Write the structure tokens for this entry.
Amino acid sequence: MADPCPDDHDRTGARIAAYRKRAGLTQRGLAQRIPYSYSLLRHVEAGHKRASPQLTAAVARALGVPVAALTGSSVHTLHPDRVAALVRPIREALDVYDLPVDAYLPQAPAFELTAAADGLCQDVRAARLQLAAAALPSLLLDLFVACRERPTTELWRSLASTCRSAHDVATKLGYQDLAALALDRMGWAAERASDPVLAAIRQYKRALSYRSPSAQHHIGLRMVAEGHRLLGGRVADGLAARAVAGQLHLGAAVLAARAADVPLMESHLAQATELAERSGEIGHVHWLSFGPANVSAHETFARLELRQFDAAYAAARAVRPPRGWATSRRAAHLVDQARAELETGRTDAALASLSLARRLAPQQTRFHPRVRETVQGLLHIRRSSPHALSRLAAWVGV
């Protein structure tokens, strides 16, 4: 008999049933741990209904197993026509932040919710966007309820962190309106956590939304200034504040480059460089990637904006990825490096950089706007396209 849900990743429902039984749970027992009904779970396990990414993520968290164990695959390639369905539940979860959620109460203790929030940040840094997007709705609902029913500073911080992850996923998938909504919720949670460092990170993220060519860059620079004000005198005292202050300077450098204000860009790069030399590479503070490598990566982007292509290429070549550098950060830099290579006549190197970015972070790279621009540039220059370039162009939809 044919599988009634052939698109359901080779019967995710059957894997859910197997892992549920291994955990010693009945269907009703598992249903009580997730925000989905016993009836739906029963139909999913039987293969009569598809297991949505959100349900799969909720079950994985309840059973303490990776989502990939239930889907049967460790690598997912997001297709553009499925992104909207994946994103919609995130928007709905963020929309109900101030409404009663009566369907269930979170069963997980606070430390498990905090660990889940950290795990979500790890997925985003590793560019596992589908896994992160699938896990977001249920974790957001859990944290909204937990912060209402048993609020603690740590839970509010975890909620702010999860809203930040929602922003990062939405940004990487091209949903800027959803990214702005997630930052509003992040600010709401950070205020209740009384955490100025998280609030400053939010200002950094807000400022980056003004880096498009047509944006009012001075508004983004005001947000950077507000981030520094929130940090106050903490920069001299703590590694976390120094890392966030450095990121704020890097964001300002990019905005200044967009506004063609070279002196301001150079000033912010110099201040970020000084902080990076004092702090070294930081990858464990609020899941930031601040340090000398990230300074050079941002300089690459800024020089590209100013059309200083030789300087951009030199900055790109100066990047020395530290051990544990976030996959998402490394792939994004490779995209910028490819643009610098294209503009300096190194077309083979540009194609190699884009291909490596694709291998490292396929979901992120596919939706990156500069990838499309660079591929179009390569196709224009190389009238006889190699097979690798043709395949890459088809993959990104050029």
Notes: Confidence is low (pLDDT under 50) at residues 1-10. The first helix runs from residue 12 to 22. The domain at 1-74 is CATH 1.10.260.40 (434 Repressor (Amino-terminal Domain)). Residues 63 and 183 are 30 Å apart (CA to CA).
